[in-house]
Amino acid sequence: MTVTALQSAEERDVLQAAFHSFDQAAQTLQQSYCALTARVEQMDLELAHSNDALRRQLADNEAMRSHLDGILESLSTGVLVLDNGGVIVRSNAPAAHVLGIAATELCGRRVTEVLDLVGLSLCDRPQRIGQSVVAITRAPLQTQSGCWPGSLLLIQDMTRVYHLEEQLQRRDRLAAMGEMIGRIAHEIRNPLGSIELFASLLRRELGESAPGSLYAEQISQAVRAMDGLLANLLVYTNPVRTPHGWHPAESLILDSLSLAAHAISRVPVDIRLDLDPGISSIWCHEGQMKQVLLNLIVNGVQAMPSGGVLTIRLEHDEARTLGGPAVRLTVRDSGTGIDPAHRSRLFDPFFTTKEEGTGLGLAIVYAIVEAHHGRIDVEGAVGQGASFVIVLPYPVPVGLLAAEGAAAPRHDQRVEEESACVMLVEERSHG
After folding, report:
1. What is d(CA 390, CA 314) in angstroms, rounded to the nearest whole number?
2. Is the pTM above the cut of 0.85?
3. Under a CB-based contact definition with an 8 Å cutoff, are residues 412 and 340 in contact?
């Protein structure tokens, strides 16, 4: 064998070995590629599962956030979320409503600045803001890790509770005063009868032309005036509980306006009626309810010495203040308003802000409304007029009786009143 043939054989062996190594490397690379492809597919699958789980978690978190936001906005309590520096970072709608500041304007402001702006402070005692009474409490905000990233400021509207407590205190106070007044009135009435009798006998003996007859007549007039005052006191202490009936609402109000014509004619007053056409009648004692309306109308007119608007509104009580069907009868004036310091005493007997007045008008109104198992509240502020809101039970609507085929009460078949209703009207202004 020649040298050239040997070289060719060696080169062929080397080339074969190289091809063999290349095949092995390619096979190894193919195996690695397959393994890498399988790993990538597995990672893609794991990533897809992770993405699905993340999407589900994000959806759950968003649902939870929406749920918590809904709870926060649905609370009747105002909530302010503060950071450690006392800056508001979150608020709900009730907080913005009580403070009278938009939620977007609350965030980023110091809470002390906001409270000072509306006349409130960080204290536990009830505070008045406008027509509302609120209680403010502060609580630390703790996370699951035990950190204290800030605090919560809770603004609780205590207006209804405050009014209920005020009403209970007034009822107890008036009950005690009523018992005392009733006893005194009865004791005074007995000697007054004797004085009237002796004055009449004296006038008869002296004759109409005698000089002393005029004095006897004046004694009799003074006794009758005092007897009328005592009669009003007895109406306050024990309103006549005669049977109630259905009475046309519009006629009741118009008759009361006619009785108040003497006061209405003195000043330029615009009378406005806003009566729900679905309330044709009111379940009440006609004479006593006219007395209530007469007192409130005259009070409203006299609270507007330069004239104004007197609005009488009748509507259904959607809030179910009395726990059942009821109607709201509101007498609103645009007059001088009510001093907050006088609000709790308005219905007390003998309390009056008038130069001339006995302070019995609103006391009798309160007693009559209570005898109707109703409720009366007053709203308003100095310079913003006043609203007296009467809520009366509406037990069996006439329309419902007619719909059920029952005989609805006819307004011309009213229950006979057992006694005359004493009309006591206060003069000049509220109280």
Report:
1. 10
2. no
3. no
Report how far apart the first and last C-alpha atoms of the chain are (Å, whole number). 143
> How would you write 294-310 as a 3-class SS string?
HHHHHHHHHCCCCCEEE
pLDDT digits (tens, 9 = 90+) for 38-97: 888 888 888 888 888 888 888 888 888 787 778 878 787 888 888 888 888 888 888 888
Sign of the torsion angle spanned by Cα atoms 170, 352, 368, 307: negative
162-237 belongs to which CATH class? mainly alpha
- Residue pair 328/291 in contact (Cβ under 8 Å)? The answer is no
CATH of 245-403, one of 3.30.230.10, 3.90.370.10, 3.40.50.2300, 3.30.565.10: 3.30.565.10
- Residue identified by tokens 């409203």 is 300
Sheet of strand 150-157: strand arrangement:
88-91, 78-83, 150-157, 132-141, 127-129
CATH 3.40.50.1010 fits 74-157, yes or no: no
Strand bridging mode 308-316 / 269-275: parallel
Q: Which residue has the tokens 């906005």?
A: 73
Contact 284, 415 (CB under 8 A): no
Averaged pLDDT, 275-297 = 90
